[in-house]
Write a structure and sequence with these properties.
- The structure is a single chain.
- The chain is mainly alpha-helical.
- The protein has a domain at 94-290: Orthogonal Bundle (MetI-like fold).
- It contains 14 helices and no strands.
- Helix 1 (2-30) runs antiparallel to helix 13 (300-328).
């Protein structure tokens, strides 16, 4: 059953990626604006324009351009950035680790905050404290991530300046990194001075991304816990003399967390997409920030590479969630 699910999802993934490639390729070419004209000074001749069009293959028909680009992608060549004049694959993969680290930190914060609120609300269900949890969740959900970012900058970057408000790492520091996974590598190298500096840059954008997701997690997990806590085996645990908190953590959380798992996976993909605006707001050197620059500069190859990579990430995350859910749910695994 699990193998059939995996094969079906892989086939669906290929079809989805092809569809994304076609849609993005067509949309960015019919959108107004000429990337070649933006590269050249105002006094450039028509011959200069045509020469650059030929260089980037923009003088061909759209189907020819797509087939050439698709053939390159299948060989690992995503083209050359028009604005940066570097291979797209290297540019995109160079920025991807920064975005993944920021998204992972945001997910950890969301799980901790959302889990705490859910357990606290379930422990104090049908009391004013649960109403307080619901009010907190509503407030967190009503404010989008980029507005949370502005609030955090005002609080911890201006009024109480204890955190960095821009960049990924302080340029004054020696950076002995072999990869672009700065946070992970700083921990593995035991360079906790670098870890602290990286976190001081990451904590505000990560928290801005995490707060809406934490509210969603708290709402669903609390509701699931309340349903599970009314089941017979939970009542039996109470009869044995277990405290309410122990009942929630040992008996309720394990089963209540399963529906939340799917939600977390789906919302994590939206969280990665949300990094586009938040990274720009904090001048964080990630993939989202690069995506905005690519759109402003009408850098067609770079836009295509970034969108395709985002699509791959979304599909892989959803595939991982489906497989994990199947492994944890015996009815799906043996059905």
């Amino acid at each position: 059953m699990l193998l059939k699910t995996l094969l079906a999802r892989l086939a669906s993934m290929v079809i989805t990626l092809f569809g994304v490639a076609v849609v993005v390729f067509v949309i960015i070419r019919v959108a107004p604006g000429d990337p070649i004209a933006m590269m050249l000074p105002p006094g450039a001749s028509d011959a200069d324009v045509e020469r650059l069009r030929a260089l980037y293959g923009l003088d061909r028909s759209m189907p020819e351009q797509f087939l050439i680009w698709l053939g390159g992608v299948l060989q690992g060549d995503f083209g050359t950035s028009i604005s940066l004049r570097q291979p797209v694959a290297g540019l995109v993969l160079g920025r991807l680790p920064a975005t993944l680290e920021l998204s992972a930190l945001a997910l950890v914060i969301a799980l901790v905050l959302g889990g705490f609120l859910a357990i606290f609300g379930a422990r104090h269900r049908a009391t004013p404290l649960e109403a307080g949890v619901d009010l907190t969740n509503g407030a967190a959900l009503s404010v989008p991530d980029f507005l949370w970012g502005l609030v955090l900058i005002l609080l911890f970057g201006v009024l109480w300046p204890v955190l960095e408000i821009s960049g990924r790492v302080s340029p004054r520091l020696d950076l002995p990194f072999a990869t672009q996974f700065y946070l992970v590598e700083s921990i593995l190298r035991l360079r906790f001075d670098l870890t602290a500096d990286l976190l001081s840059h990451m904590i505000m954008p990560a928290l801005a991304l995490a707060l809406p997701l934490a509210a969603i997690i708290a709402q669903l997990l609390k509701q699931s816990l309340k349903e599970v806590l009314n089941l017979d085996y939970v009542t039996l645990a109470r009869v044995r003399g277990y405290s309410e908190l122990r009942v929630i953590l040992r008996e309720g959380l394990r089963n209540a967390a399963l529906p939340t798992l799917t939600l977390v996976g789906v919302q994590f993909t939206f969280l990665i997409g949300g990094t586009v605006i938040v990274e720009r707001l904090f001048s964080y050197e990630g993939l989202g920030n690069m995506a905005i620059d690519a759109v402003i500069n009408r850098d067609l190859p770079l836009i295509q590479g970034i969108v395709l990579l985002f699509a791959v990430i979304f599909i892989l995350v959803n595939l991982a969630v489906d497989l994990t859910y199947s492994l944890l749910n015996p009815r799906l695994r043996h059905g």
